[in-house]
């Protein structure tokens, strides 16, 4: 019962991590630049994401521009696109597989098959967490290095946006969920290896006595 509850808790974490990965991939605020200027009425907030750049004016107007050209983008944005999409796909696969393999469900067949499915789902979650953590760290490093660069003007410097923090938290949820699923299945398999099922050996005394009794009858 405790392992089933722990797996269910890990599944909830994986759901939050998967939805957070999708949200972080689609959100346009990976880096934000607020330019107030001399008049607060003309304040502009510029946001840049993986797929589009958006501008929000203090008057309430909001406009976005899609990034159509892939080759013109920096390397870290191209890598972030690829790894975040892979993270979303792996988290979706992990959710489908662990739904079949969890102990609290009636899918997946026998116990060994369910354990293997949970272990495979845990590996998918761990890989999804790694693929989600790498681009967020790389993207944050680029933002900080540009912010500390004295040759870049202040108007061109940015700060990490909400999508970066969402990616960090989602990657952490996926890693924790994957470790829980893999460790629960590993403990069960290790217990089966250490304590193998006992084989019942029937004594042969009864057979010998029956054999001796049959010989006496013939005598």
Structural class, judged by helices and strands? alpha+beta
Which percent range fits the helix content? 55-70%
Strand content: 5-15%
CATH topology of the domain at 4-28 and 74-194: Butyryl-CoA Dehydrogenase, subunit A, domain 3
**Count of strand segments:** 5
Give the averaged pLDDT, no decimals. 81
Summarize the structure.
This protein has 219 residues and is α+β, with helices and mostly antiparallel strands. It has five helices and five strands. Strand 3 (52-57) and strand 4 (62-66) form a beta hairpin.
Write a structural description.
63% of the residues lie in helices and 11% in strands. Helix 1 packs antiparallel against helix 4 (162-194) and helix 2 (75-101) runs antiparallel to helix 3 (111-148). The chain has a 5-stranded antiparallel sheet. 32% of the residues are buried. The chain has a domain at 4-28 and 74-194: Butyryl-CoA Dehydrogenase, subunit A, domain 3, CATH 1.20.140. It is α+β, with helices and mostly antiparallel strands and 219 residues long. This is Claudin. It is a multi-pass membrane protein.
Helix/strand layout:
Blueprint lengths: L1 H25 L4 E5 L8 E5 L3 E6 L4 E5 L8 H27 L9 H38 L10 E2 L1 H33 L10 H14 L1
Name the features:
219 residues; Butyryl-CoA Dehydrogenase, subunit A, domain 3; alpha+beta; disordered C terminus; 5 strands; five-stranded antiparallel sheet
């Amino acid at each position: 019962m405790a392992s089933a509850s722990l797996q269910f808790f890990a599944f909830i974490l994986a759901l939050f991590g998967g939805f957070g990965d999708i949200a972080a991939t689609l959100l346009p605020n990976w880096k934000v630049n607020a330019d107030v200027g001399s008049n607060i009425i003309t304040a502009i907030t510029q946001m840049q994401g993986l797929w589009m750049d958006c501008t929000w004016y203090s008057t309430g107007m909001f406009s976005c521009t899609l990034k159509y050209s892939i080759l013109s983008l920096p390397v870290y944005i191209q890598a972030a696109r690829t790894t975040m999409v892979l993270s979303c796909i792996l988290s979706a696969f992990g959710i489908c597989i662990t739904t079949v393999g969890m102990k609290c469900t009636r899918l997946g067949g026998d116990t060994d098959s369910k354990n293997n499915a949970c272990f495979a789902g845990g590996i998918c979650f761990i890989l999804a967490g790694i693929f989600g953590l790498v681009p967020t760290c790389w993207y944050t490093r680029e933002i900080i290095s540009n912010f500390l660069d004295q040759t870049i003007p202040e108007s061109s410097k940015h700060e990490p946006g909400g999508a970066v923090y969402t990616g960090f938290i989602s990657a952490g949820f996926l890693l924790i969920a994957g470790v829980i699923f893999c460790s629960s299945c590993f403990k069960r398999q290790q217990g089966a290896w250490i304590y193998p099922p006992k084989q019942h050996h029937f004594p042969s005394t009864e057979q010998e006595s029956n054999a001796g009794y049959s010989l006496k009858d013939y005598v």
